[in-house]
Amino acid sequence: MGPNPALGVFYHWLGGFASGTLYLPFRWVRHWAWETYWLVGGAFSWIIVPWALAFFLTKDVAQVLSETPASTLFWTYLFGLLWGFGGLTFGLTMRFLGMSLGMAMVLGYTATFGTLIPPIFRGEFVTHVLGTHSGRVILIGVGVCLIGIVFAGAAGVAKERKMSVTEKRLAIQEFDLRKGVVVATFSGVMSACFAYGLASGEPIRQITMRHLTPNLWQGLPVLIAVLLGGFTTNFIWCAILNSRNRTGHQYFRSGTGAELPAERREHALENAIDAPSEEMAKPLPVSEAPMKKSPLLANYFFSAVAGTIWYFQFFFYTMGETQMGQYKFSSWTLHMASIMIFGSLWGIALKEWKGAGSRAGTLLAAALLLLVGSTVIVGYGNYIGLAH
User: Which of 12, 169, 224, 314 has its CB surrounded by the most CB atoms within 10 Å?
Assistant: First the structure.
C-alpha cells in the first residue's frame, strides 16, 4: 500500500491531540515538586514506552541499533539533546515576553526551521519544493500555519489585556523585549532540532526496513535515539532541581513534599513542545511551597499516564510521516499546527478563555480556522505530489 496523505494528516491530528492532552493527568499529581513528576513522566515518555513499543511493533530493534553507524546514532542523539535545551529555555521566553507572545514566537521559529531546514540541507528545496507545483502548495500551507500562529499569539495578547494588574504580573514577571527575542530565537531553533534528529535517523529506518519491520512502524527505532537525547537534558536539569530544592526524597516515600502553587502548575506544561517552562526560569524554593503528604502510588500512576500520552504524539507523528510521500518534511508543520489546534481546544474546554473578551475569541477562532486550513493545504500538496 502506497502513501496516503489524508491518512497521514489524520495521524498527525492524533499526535496533536496526544500532545494537547498530556498535561491533564498531571492535574491529579499531588504534593510533588515539578521536577519530580516531570522526570517520572519523562522516564516513561523518553525511555520505557519507546523501547516497549519498538520491541513489540518492529523487528530486532536491538540488532537494528547495533547495526546503525555510530555517526548516525551520534547525530540523532545530539539533535535530541539540543531539542531538550529548546524546551528548557522556553521558560525564559515566558518570563521575558509572556505566555502568548513568547509561545507565538517560539512556535513560529520551530515550525519554520523544523519544516524548511531538512530539505534545504539535503539540497532538495529548490528542485523538489520551489520547483514543483505540489512543493509550492505545501509552502503555502506552511505560510498559512505561520499566519495562524500569529493570530493565536494575538488572541493571547488580547486575553492578557483583560487580566488584572496582579494577573499580568504573574504572567509576565520581568518583561524584556530584547532578551525575550534572543531567548525565543534560541528556544525555537533548538526545539526544531527534533525534526533534524528524525531526519538524521534515516539510516535507522532503512536498516529496520531491511529487518522486515512494517512500513508504518519504521520510525519507532529512530525515536529511541532522539528521545534518549531529550531524556539526558531533562534528567540533568531535574536532578539539579531535586538537589537544589531538596525534593529527591519524593521518589521513594510518601512523606512531606512540595507542591507548586496552582498558577505555576497550570503554566508548567503549556508550550509548543510540552517541555519544562517556567521552572527553568525560576525554580520554586522549598520554603515557598506548602508541605503535605504525597500519595506515592497515585502520583507514579498519573505521571506514567501523562508520560505515555506524551510519547504518543511522536508515535503518531512517525506514522503520519510514512504517509506523506516524498514531501515528508511537511510533517513538522502538520505536527505544530495540530498541537496548536488541540491545545487551544482543550483550553476552551477547560474554560481557560472564559472572560477573555470578544476580540480574543474572534482571533482565536480565526487562528483555529487558519491552522486547520494549513493542515488541509499541506495534505493536498502531498496528494498532488503523489499524482505526479
Answer: 12
State the amino acid at position 207 in one-letter form: I
The model carries a pTM of: 0.79
Check: CB of residue 54 under 8 Å from CB of residue 224.
Answer: yes
Split at pLDDT 50, 70, 90, the class of 268 is very low
